[in-house]
Amino acid sequence: xxxxxxxxxxxxxxxxxxxxxxxxxxxxxxxxxxxxxxxxxxxxxxxxxxxxxxxxxxxxxxxxxxxxxxxxxxxxxxxxxxxxxxxxxxxxxxxxxxxxxxxxxxxxxxxxxxxxxxxxxxxxxxxxxxxxxxxxxxxxxxxxxxxxxxxxxxxxxxxxxxxxxxxxxxxxxxxxxxxxxxxxxxxxxxxxxxxxxxxxxxxxxxxxxxxxxxxxxxxxxxxxxxxxxxxxxxxxxxxxxxxxxxxxxxxxxxxxxxxxxxxxxxxxxxxxxxxxxxxxxxxxxxxxxxxxxxxxxxxxxxxxxxxxxxxxxxxxxxxxxxxxxxxxxxxxxxxxxxxxxxxxxxxxxxxxxxxxxxxxxxxxxxxxxxxxxxxxxxxxxxxxxxxxxxxxxxxxxxxxxxxxxxxxxxxxxxxxxxxxxxxxxxxxxxxxxxxxxxxxxxxxxxxxxx
Amino acid sequence: xxxxxxxxxxxxxxxxxxxxxxxxxxxxxxxxxxxxxxxxxxxxxxxxxxxxxxxxxxxxxxxxxxxxxxxxxxxxxxxxxxxxxxxxxxxxxxxxxxxxxxxxxxxxxxxxxxxxxxxxxxxxxxxxxxxxxxxxxxxxxxxxxxxxxxxxxxxxxxxxxxxxxxxxxxxxxxxxxxxxxxxxxxxxxxxxxxxxxxxxxxxxxxxxxxxxxxxxxxxxxxxxxxx
Lengths: 450, 227
Hints:
By secondary structure, chain A is of the alpha+beta class. Chain A has helices spanning 7-17, 19-38, 61-72, 75-85, 94-104, 124-181, 183-187, 198-218, 224-253, 259-292, 298-323, 325-371, 395-421, 428-435, and strands at 44-52, 105-110, 114-121, 379-383, 439-443.
């Protein structure tokens, strides 16, 4: 198996035996780099700071940054600036000059709604002029475009306002016509269609209490027939409570004409009928049980009479609320009331939309004035382009330093290649590094070949 | 040429030859004993004999011409300075023999020929080692003999065992590790292996590969020859 030599051995040898190569290549390269650095022209950077005004309705500065950058880097704008400032004349085609200008132009958005534009050029005058032209042109173009947008927006809002005003008028006319036809609706806006007062509930609770007392007194609580009737009555009672609760909840949320309310009302009617039937069945069952009992006592009879009386009162209370004249009138007025409320709601909604539109229109007009120069401009120059007093960086020094660094790296690479190509051992340390065994002796130069 | 039995070992016969008028200048331990190079070889000697049971050494390299024969010869000379120790230098590279050249031995005997003669003989002829004058270094020389087959591993083992009994130190000038498999065989029959690396000549990859071929318990270390 051929022995493999690690690359570190050649690095070790490159440094030990071929360091002159590193020096020579580095020296030659550095000299060339210094010469190149001396002939590298300096560059100057000028910068302008723009401020975007902040007020209600103004565009977001971060979003505006992207748009402004695209506008700034547009070929048409850059071409104009290139021509005015006579930049990059050494390049042949206009497209090449525009590309070079894009490389030398930097646009940055900063916190606080400010933006900076900077341009690198070969002379301070060129840098200042190009930066100033770019900033001025950007403000002008941005204002013009925003003015056009605001104008279009205003025209649209005006048209929309007219349409809404006409709609408000129509709705109001419709409402007035309805009230002229049904003035009673306006006089009695609130209608109660179903009553479930506390007196009825108190009667029901008292009736339940008497029935339980009767059961205890007569000792019939455990009879199956009576228990079944009582259970049926309790179920009907629970259903009645649930139907009342549902109707109450639906009324809180919906109008009387809504299908859900109508369904809930129908459910309540059915529950009331079922409850009446269950009460009759329970009463009959109870009487039959009492008749069959061998020794009915006086207490049971008294309780039975009280229950009969209470049941009559309760029936009267339940039917009385819906049978009077007021209830009938309310029932007749309910659809009209619903229609009236609907007309009112629609009219108010249109008025509210019109109000919001007027507010938008006011903001749009204000924005348009600002962006068309009648008020404060959206973009203003916070810090104008200055004439740089010194080159931005010493490009010559930078080129020279880069060249020297590259030369050293190149020299090291050449030395490494040299060590790689010539793998002959040169001295004791080479052998020690390779062999890992001890060097017994180093015989100095002189007559030992053979 | 004069023959004699050496040290009571009947298998080894010492041929005493007159010392040459001049020797190879690369044998710095003999030619320039005060030189820095000679001092370095003596330092090498001290490093390799730090253990008393270590008496046989193979000197090899990654490739030809990297200085292993000169190193082996100078190591043998340096070892012979240790109280006039009996040292034999074996030329184990018959394809490119150098020992006879370095020590300027005219018409040297070739141990591979002796090896071939011992294989078929009823009475085995002795191994002939050369001694120049009263030097303590004995030479088991080799010459290029294309007709003589290469020694087997068992031949090396037998020969080195015999020499170990007859001499205080045995230094083997072996072939390059990359050239022949004999070097690996020899490495298994000696007490220590010394790898010679020549600055500016030995390749890093070859050296690393060669060192991986040598058993760790045999490897003594490397000798770096500066250019």
